[in-house]
């Protein structure tokens, strides 16, 4: 008999974790906005979007990219020999709409990825069952208009930021759907969101795949993220001796900390400015 209990588990890492900082990482004591390392010239960057580069919006489609952020990312990309990847729960097509087709990118929590050559890699999953689940979730969203249903293609998310009292209802509904879908899908928690996603793919697996390729190979990997979904990335970065940076409050496997998206941008600008001074 299939183990439905395993299928419906919430795959987000949870609970407090206190780990030593990366061996050899030196704190950037001159940076006043957080506890972060001094980045070397050979850093490679993996950047979450919502809650990290941008403040979280009430609805995902409401975010806008300002010119300063676009210029900053392009400058870091050029300074690092192209070693910048956007790592997001959003679909790749949506990320490209926001940032242009200018970066390596992993979307839908690693279910799809575009490498530095422009080649797309997609995790193959049976979508017929997910379409049926989506139909039932649309009915739930119609019953509760404060919920935001997001169809990403291979993932389906339900945001309850405008109705936190519905969190338990959303979680239980998605848990049951994941149980019905079987081993190909699993439940993912996030900040005021629950998501059905393909099993076995996450931000950590996406970063690991990038690290085996140019231009990230042999660079010091840096991953910045803010959510439960980013913990997989932090744990991978820690295993390979990179720099993991958590944005905001809460328990995390990350070794370093920044308070908000503004501080993230300020720290990245500091890297750019130092590179200019030393070049």
Q: What does this molecule look like?
A:
With 279 residues, this protein is α/β, with parallel strands linked by helices. It folds into 2 domains: 16-123 and 201-278, Rossmann fold, CATH 3.40.50; 128-198, Alpha-Beta Plaits, CATH 3.30.70. Helix content is 33%, strand content 19%. The chain has 8 helices and 12 strands. It has helices at 4-7, 67-79, 92-99, 128-143, 167-181, 203-211, 231-239, 261-278, and strands at residues 43-47, 84-87, 104-107, 112-114, 120-122, 148-151, 156-159, 185-190, 193-198, 220-225, 243-247, 256-258. The strands form 2 sheets. Strands 5-4-3-2-1-10-11-12 form an 8-stranded mixed beta sheet, sandwiched between helices. Strand 6 (148-151) and strand 7 form a beta hairpin.
Assign an overall shape: globular
Give the number of helices. Answer: 8
Strand order within the widest beta sheet: 5-4-3-2-1-10-11-12
Poorly predicted tracts of residues:
1-9, 14-21
Helix content: 25-40%
Report, as a whole number of angstroms, the end-to-end distance.
Answer: 63 Å
What does the largest sheet look like?
A: 8 strands, mixed
Please, how many domains? 2
Which whole number gives the mean pLDDT? Answer: 90
CATH superfamily of the largest domain: HAD superfamily/HAD-like
Radius of gyration: 19 Å
Strand content is: 15-25%
What's the CATH class label of the largest domain? Alpha Beta
Supply the CATH architecture of the largest domain.
3-Layer(aba) Sandwich
Helix-strand pattern: HEHEHEEEHEEHEEHEHEEH
**CATH fold-level assignment of the largest domain:** Rossmann fold
Q: What structural class results from the helix and strand content?
A: alpha/beta
